[in-house]
């Protein structure tokens, strides 16, 4: 009798990137159908040496990996953590194991990761390795038109979660050395006090927000005092993938539908309405990777590049601009890796309009400070808040008014700018207005204990407005705005009818792009 054909052996390598979780992980689920499987995370020199990377990012990732390795081991899957270029690591593992499939999530990352993936695709093709990428956000690869995008996002977020229903029984056994520390990776220790890392912390944070902390979300998100607890604080977990966006979306919808508290439901609806904006801004980088380096609106080229003031930039980075709310926000951010949306926007507005700095260098500095750095949202927001998209409303924040509105009792400023601790409240937002006797009484001499303003507020704002609005009136800027809107502007088309009715009933539904809120802060909060 003829021998029965033997089933082919397939060996899958599950490549973890910014998806450091077990739940709702499509590549993990797909790996169960292979004969053999192995998990892999690669600490790439390109990441460590990139200008947007900070030791705090790596520290958080390592803590996530420690928990993930244990969770995968309990399911029978080893997790290798290697240091090296992706192609070199894969080549070595391919020689040792002969894996046939590489399974990963899609990624919309910075320029270095985009270039890596192009090269990696060629390598896989040359080696006969099947690289299968799965979606994990609402970002659509090779999108031809924004029309219908909202409906596709909704369908993805409403789809069932990818849950691991099984155990890996034939996993490859390889030596798993201990995770490296920052020193072993050549990184300096950071001084930030970070949120708890890992999937368990992420799920606790989500639960506390949708069940309790989200009650005052709409009101809390503007002030750096109330936002610290009243915002979701899910942003690092979304950035590192310890939670999937779909998990957050579905948990929020369940909480809205089941809570008897109408106030909580109303606040959570505001949060739910911003989840789509999260992917909307990431889609811009996916569609046009160059926005990490170049203006959306090329009519803005040359606007600030040749006028960069190094002294002003240093004062802004150090939190010593002489404007208390700006300095308090910067110092808080550098200490914690987090800041609420309105204060992020104010920092960028101040650097762009008051100090007339091009967005690229401030953007890199902020990327290193934000634990929740998400490239697509970050670079879109840097340009949006500095006025170089060509389509968004210009937002120029007064640091004095923000101090008075968002920190009326001066608690936040006194906490982060202790030089001003004894300054009387009427002068706290504008300490340069104190006369000498008040300065002496407060123990704060302007120009000595605390710097004088680096620029004069009203004059700097007027100069910025004149230049920005003047540019927008030019024929080139007007013509280009239509092109930018066509490529990147938001659409409401494509939502299913039930979704359209639901969206229409929500005051939280997103307005057109030209008047959009700041999703980096509203979500990354």
Largest sheet: 5 strands, parallel
CATH architecture of the largest domain: Orthogonal Bundle
Distance between the termini: 68 Å
Principal-axis shape: globular
CATH class wording of the largest domain? Mainly Alpha
Order of helices and strands: EHEHHEHEHEHHHHHHHHHHHHHHHHHHHH
CATH superfamily of the largest domain: DNA Cyclobutane Dipyrimidine Photolyase, subunit A, domain 3
Write down how many β-strands occur, each being a DSSP E stretch of 2 or more residues: 5
What is the average per-residue confidence, as pLDDT, rounded to a whole number? 91
**Tally of distinct domains:** 2
User: Roughly how many Å is the radius of gyration?
Assistant: 25 Å
Tally of DSSP helical segments: 25
Please tell me about this protein's structure.
The protein is 50% helix and 6% strand. With 525 residues, the chain is mostly helical. The chain folds into 2 domains: 11-136, 3-Layer(aba) Sandwich (Rossmann fold), CATH 3.40.50; 137-162 and 191-525, Orthogonal Bundle (DNA Cyclobutane Dipyrimidine Photolyase, subunit A, domain 3), CATH 1.10.579.10. A 5-stranded parallel beta sheet has the order 3-2-1-4-5. Strand 1 (11-16), helix 1 and strand 2 form a beta-alpha-beta unit. Helix 11 (245-258) runs antiparallel to helix 12 (262-287), helix 12 (262-287) packs across helix 17 (375-386) and helix 15 (341-354) packs across helix 17 (375-386).
């Amino acid at each position: 009798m003829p021998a029965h054909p033997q089933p082919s052996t397939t060996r899958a390598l599950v490549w973890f990137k910014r998806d450091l979780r077990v739940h709702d992980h499509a590549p993990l689920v797909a790996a169960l159908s292979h004969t053999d499987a192995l998990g892999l995370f690669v600490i790439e020199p390109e990441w460590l040496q990139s200008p947007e990377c900070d030791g705090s990012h790596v520290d958080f990732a390592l803590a996530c990996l420690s928990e993930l390795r244990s969770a995968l081991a309990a399911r029978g899957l080893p997790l290798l953590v290697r240091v090296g270029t992706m192609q070199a690591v894969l080549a070595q593992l391919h020689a040792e194991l002969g894996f046939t499939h590489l399974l990963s999530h899609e990624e919309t990352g910075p320029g270095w990761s985009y270039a890596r993936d192009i090269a990696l695709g060629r390598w896989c093709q040359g080696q006969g390795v099947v690289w299968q990428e799965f979606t994990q956000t609402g970002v659509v690869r090779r999108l031809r038109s924004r029309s219908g995008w909202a409906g596709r996002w909704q369908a993805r977020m409403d789809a069932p979660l990818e849950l691991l229903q099984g155990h890996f029984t034939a996993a490859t056994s390889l030596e798993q050395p201990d995770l490296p520390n920052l020193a072993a990776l050549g990184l300096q220790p950071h001084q930030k006090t970070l949120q708890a890392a890992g999937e368990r912390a992420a799920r606790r944070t989500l639960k506390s927000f949708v069940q309790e902390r989200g009650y005052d979300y709409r009101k809390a998100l503007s002030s750096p005092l109330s936002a610290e607890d009243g915002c979701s604080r899910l942003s690092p977990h979304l950035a590192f993938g310890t939670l999937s966006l779909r998990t957050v979306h579905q948990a929020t919808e369940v909480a809205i539908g089941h809570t008897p508290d109408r106030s909580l439901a109303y606040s959570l609806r505001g949060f739910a309405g911003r989840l789509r904006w999260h992917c909307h801004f990431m889609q811009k980088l996916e569609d046009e990777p160059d926005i990490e380096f170049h203006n959306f609106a090329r009519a803005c080229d040359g606007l600030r590049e040749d006028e960069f003031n190094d002294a002003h930039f240093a004062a802004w980075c150090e939190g010593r601009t002489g404007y208390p709310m700006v300095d308090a926000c910067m110092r808080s951010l550098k200490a914690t890796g987090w800041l609420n949306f309105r204060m992020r926007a104010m920092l960028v507005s101040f650097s762009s309009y008051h100090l007339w700095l091009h967005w690229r260098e401030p953007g890199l500095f902020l990327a290193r400070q934000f634990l929740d750095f998400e490239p697509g949202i970050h670079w879109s927001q840097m340009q949006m808040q500095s006025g170089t998209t060509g389509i968004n409303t210009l937002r120029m924040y007064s640091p004095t008014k923000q101090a008075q509105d968002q920190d009326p009792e001066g608690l936040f400023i006194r906490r982060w700018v202790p030089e001003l601790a004894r300054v009387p409240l009427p002068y706290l937002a504008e300490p340069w207005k104190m006369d000498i006797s008040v300065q002496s009484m407060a123990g704060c001499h302007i120009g000595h204990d605390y710097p004088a303003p680096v620029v004069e507020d009203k004059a700097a704002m007027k100069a910025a407005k004149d230049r920005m609005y003047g540019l927008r009136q030019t024929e080139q800027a007007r013509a280009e705005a239509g092109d930018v809107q066509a490529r990147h502007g938001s659409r409401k088309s494509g939502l299913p009818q039930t979704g359209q009715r639901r969206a229409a009933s929500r005051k939280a539904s997103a307005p057109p792009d030209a008047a959009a809120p700041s999703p980096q802060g509203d979500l990354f909060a």
